[in-house]
Amino acid sequence: MRDYEQAGTVVLGASFDDAAANKKFADEQGYTYPLLCDTDRKLGLAYKACDSASDSWPRRVTYVIGKDGKIEQAIHTQDVAGQAAALLAKS
């Protein structure tokens, strides 16, 4: 995470799970960045990671959001770790 911080990057994750499930998942995976709880799917709908509030699972999407708050890139990938490393190398 230090590499991302040095690049001036903020990393966030999001899932449809509640806080307890996100904490368990983050602990198991060794994640140190915040995982947002999107139990009502509002974030997923806004960022087109799901099609309806009844979807069980979000699509995996990496968003690069500029300092102006605008989406610069939307990358649909299953290789989230590899994509994150590639984006960091570009910064």
In a few lines, what is going on in this structure?
The protein has helices at 2-6, 19-29, 42-46, 80-90, and strands at 13-15, 35-37, 61-65, 71-76.
Describe this structure in words.
- The protein has 91 residues and is of the alpha+beta class.
- The chain has one domain: 3-Layer(aba) Sandwich (Glutaredoxin).
- Helices cover 35% and strands 19% of the residues.
- The protein has four helices and four strands, in the order αβαβαββα.
- A hairpin with a 5-residue loop joins strand 3 and strand 4 (71-76).
- The longest helix has 11 residues, at 19-29.
- It is globular, with a radius of gyration of 13 Å.
- Total strands: 4
Q: What is the CATH homologous superfamily assignment?
A: Glutaredoxin
Give me the side-by-side strand order of the main sheet: 1-2
Our Rg estimate from Cα atoms comes to 13 Å
Q: What is the structural class? A: alpha+beta
Straight-line distance between termini: 14 Å
- Anisotropy-based shape: globular
* Mean pLDDT across every amino acid position: 85
The count of domains is 1
Biggest sheet details: 2 strands, parallel
Q: How helix-rich are the residues, as a percent range?
A: 25-40%
Under the CATH scheme, which architecture would be assigned? 3-Layer(aba) Sandwich
CATH topology category name: Glutaredoxin
CATH class annotation: Alpha Beta
What's the SSE blueprint?
Layout: H1 2-6, E1 13-15, H2 19-29, E2 35-37, H3 42-46, E3 61-65, E4 71-76, H4 80-90
Parallel strand pairs: 1-2
Antiparallel strand pairs: 3-4
